[in-house]
Amino acid sequence: MAEPFAAIERVAREGPLDELPELQAWLGRVGGLVSMRYAREPRPAIAPTTAEERLLTVEEAAARLSKTPDWIYHHRRELPFARKLGGHLRFSDSGLNDWIREAACPSLAAQDVEKPGKQSRRRLLTVKP
What we know:
Elements: H1 2-14, H2 20-40, E1 55-56, H3 58-65, H4 69-74, E2 82-85, E3 88-92, H5 93-103, E4 108-113, E5 122-127
Antiparallel strand pairs: 1-3, 2-3, 4-5
């Protein structure tokens, strides 16, 4: 599988400049499809941590997300990188980085979907046309 990626990388480095916008758009669409696949596939609620992985405190995670510690506690069940260790809430640094990267992917858009009895709040990931 590395051979097709090497060809794409060659085009990005050495291909004609007028083909780069089309390549960039295509890579954005592929990136969106990969992100959607990751979102669809079942993953364990708590991924195993490695000895090298740094765990953040609530205050550190709040600072990284520009949120308050209260917001972090309130949304902890929605954050896939949260860990409960001996009564303390901790956050996987690498998991937080991955989550931020997924949220910042420019080829994905949030679309509101109505919940029965509530206003639209839930977001689905969709690829922009």
